[in-house]
Design a protein that fits this description.
The protein has about 280 residues and is α/β, with parallel strands linked by helices. It folds into two domains: about 5-150, NADH:ubiquinone oxidoreductase-like, 20kDa subunit (Rossmann fold); about 160-280, no CATH class. About 35% of the residues lie in helices and about 10% in strands. It is built from 13 helices and seven strands. It has a five-stranded parallel β-sheet with strand order 2-1-3-5-7, sandwiched between helices. Strands 4-6 form a two-stranded antiparallel ribbon. The longest helix is centred in the first third of the chain and has 13 residues, at about 60-70. The protein starts with a strand and ends in a 5-residue tail after the last helix. The mean pLDDT is about 90. The structure holds iron/sulfur cluster (3 copies). One iron/sulfur cluster binds near residues 158, 185, 196, 207 and 213.
Length: about 280
């Protein structure tokens, strides 16, 4: 088996998480034939599996992605930037010219695409391993799945792994800084926790530590295919139902980062498109 790892617009955090798999990495070390962070190889050869980290932000990255697709029997969207746009997708709130002006203050010798896209906008993807980054445990299991030909799906929400008790409450505002009750669902307490609309598999590591889920694994299949609701609206409505008060849409939208340029953007009812448009017009995103 030959494994390649390709990096596009990313922070390399997913590759670092791969290094954190320790023994699992040693198991596959001799199979990794191309990985800029861990292996000195110039050119991606034909591979059985190519993990692609990062979103597609430049024309050059698009070429790299297409080459990876040509050379991979199986192509994996590795991490949420690659699978959903992720953190890289947040740049899509601004027009490319504005980003270039603010960050570089000069013309670039390469062209930014209009958005930072997940890779499946351009090529067919065989497997998705979302997460920002995917936990080392998830990566290890995924590698086992690839080696054995049986990759596990996690089509259940983070709530299923969380263990906090959902109760209907009556509160009057979104909470951000107070210390939460350790046993009660964070959504019930008024924290914007995305666990109920987010794909599980991470063992709810954030909520178990008292931190609301930020949705880094992206939506469950169910939320993805709901025709009349998008991720933001669904979460907004759930908080209102459980915590029993009028939630401002911006309180939900302002912490939402991982799926800006995913399929969610294409839904007819997409509030994400609205957030992006507002930002591009110079309004509050
Ligand atoms: S998914 Fe997260 S950890 Fe991975 S490259 Fe993107 S920002 Fe970095
Ligand atoms: S909404 Fe968040 S805190 Fe509540 S059960 Fe789900 S994951 Fe846990
Ligand atoms: S709890 Fe949410 S934010 Fe934390 S790792 Fe899991 S999916 Fe990501």
């Amino acid at each position: 088996m030959k494994i390649g790892i390709v990096k596009l617009a990313s922070c390399s955090g997913c590759q670092i998480a791969l290094l954190d798999t320790h023994e699992k990495l040693l198991e596959i070390a001799d199979k990794v034939v191309y990985a800029p962070l861990i292996k000195d190889a110039r050119e991606l050869p034909d591979c059985d599996v190519v993990l692609v980290e990062g979103a597609v932000r430049t024309e050059h990255e698009l070429e790299v992605l297409k080459r990876a697709r040509e050379r991979a029997k199986k192509l994996v969207a590795f991490g949420s930037c690659s699978a959903l746009g992720g953190i890289s997708g947040m740049g899509s709130i601004y027009k490319p010219e504005k980003l270039i002006e603010d960050i570089y203050g000069r013309d670039l010798d390469y062209k930014l695409l209009d958005f930072a896209y997940p890779i499946d906008r351009f090529v067919e993807v065989d497997y998705y391993l979302p997460g920002c980054p995917p936990t080392p445990e998830l990566i290890s299991k995924f590698i086992d799945g690839i080696l054995n030909g049986r990759v596990e799906r996690h089509d259940y929400p983070v709530c299923a792994e969380c263990g906090r008790l959902v109760v209907h409450t009556k509160i009057d505002n979104i909470k951000k800084t107070e210390l939460p009750d350790p046993k009660v669902c964070l959504l019930s307490q008024g924290y914007v926790c995305l666990g109920s609309v987010t794909r599980g598999g991470c063992r709810a590591i954030c909520t178990k530590a008292g931190v609301p889920c930020r949705g880094c694994r992206g939506p469950t299949d169910k939320v993805m295919v709901m025709p009349c609701k998008d991720y933001l609206t669904e979460l907004h409505d759930r908080i209102e139902r459980i915590a029993g008060f009028d939630v401002k849409f911006n309180d939900v939208a302002s912490i939402y980062a991982f799926v800006f340029t995913s399929d969610m953007m294409d839904k007819l009812v997409s509030r994400i498109k609205e957030v992006i448009r507002k930002g591009r017009r110079g309004g509050r995103a």
